[in-house]
Every structure is written in C-alpha cells, then in structure tokens.
Design a protein that fits this description.
mainly alpha; about 80 residues; about 0% strand
Length: about 80
C-alpha cells in the first residue's frame, strides 16, 4: 500500500467528508469496543486525579441591640 497522499489538485485544507463517512461505516470498525475503551480511560483519569473540594459561606451577624416593644396596654 502506498502511504503517500494522492494529489488530486484540491487544496490540502479541504476535509474529505465522504471518505470519513465511509470509514465510519466500515464493518470491521469496532465502535462499541472503542466506546468502552474511552469510558475506561475516563474512569482511570477520574480515579487518578486529585480530588479538590471547595466551599464558601458568608455569615452575617447583626450587632445592634434588640428593641422590645411592650404591647400590654395597647387597645
């Protein structure tokens, strides 16, 4: 097999969408196996990365004196 790209006169920046489509439809491609491999990679990555837990809280304390109103004699 020739590993050299064939020159068709088109720009090298163009993407061959039809070629990608037929590559993904190829029967020998093990998509479920690739998905399981990616899932395993992500699990290993999450297991090895350090856990960072961060929290923030704001407490407001009112220091003024309470006012008590007597309502016994109000009619």
């Amino acid at each position: 097999m020739n590993s050299q790209p064939t020159s068709t006169g088109e720009s090298s920046r163009e993407i061959d969408l039809i070629g990608i489509y037929y590559t993904l439809r190829r029967p020998g491609l093990d998509r479920p196996g690739l998905c399981r491999g990616r899932l395993a990679d992500r699990r290993v990555y999450l297991w090895w990365t350090p856990k960072v837990y961060e929290g923030q809280a704001v407490i407001q304390v009112d220091q003024s004196e309470r006012k008590v109103v007597k309502i016994d004699d109000i009619q």
